[in-house]
């Protein structure tokens, strides 16, 4: 794939990498791919967080973020005081009872609750075992509200 992307760029053929990655910033992902030999820019990658960020700006939403800490820089310039929506990404060990309950309480308090999920995966393989993915937590909040 590395050789093919070099060939595409050399021939002026535009391409995009699409990812469902919500544990790290797009910049961090691009840096990782560069270490594997890919000649990529952040603009070559379409990821959920920047898309959600644009949506938040366009709709003037102030999120309560339930995301992995490494993803927070994607939202650093977004107003988060007095949140009027919940944005949920893969938060792994940060999906605590308190964090989920805080999101639940906010959604219940809103006249028109807005839950924005950056994924709906049921589970994924980590090491030798299957672990819950973002979709299970999203479904829980949807069901409860």
UniProtKB/TrEMBL annotation:
A GO CC term assigned to this protein in UniProt: nucleus
Cofactor dependency: Mg(2+)
Main location: cytoplasm
Catalytic activity: diphosphate + H2O = 2 phosphate + H(+)
GO function terms (MF aspect): inorganic diphosphate phosphatase activity; metal ion binding; phosphatase activity
Pfam family, one: Hydrolase_6
The enzyme's E.C. designation: 3.6.1.1
Subcellular location: Cytoplasm; Nucleus
InterPro entries noted in UniProt: HAD-like_sf, HAD-SF_hydro_IIA, HAD_sf
PANTHER family referenced in this protein's UniProt entry, alphabetically: 4-NITROPHENYLPHOSPHATASE-RELATED, PHOSPHOLYSINE PHOSPHOHISTIDINE INORGANIC PYROPHOSPHATE PHOSPHATASE
Function (record text): Phosphatase that hydrolyzes imidodiphosphate, 3-phosphohistidine and 6-phospholysine. Has broad substrate specificity and can also hydrolyze inorganic diphosphate, but with lower efficiency.
UniProt protein name: Phospholysine phosphohistidine inorganic pyrophosphate phosphatase
Organism: Medioppia subpectinata
Classification of source organism: Eukaryota, Metazoa, Ecdysozoa, Arthropoda, Chelicerata
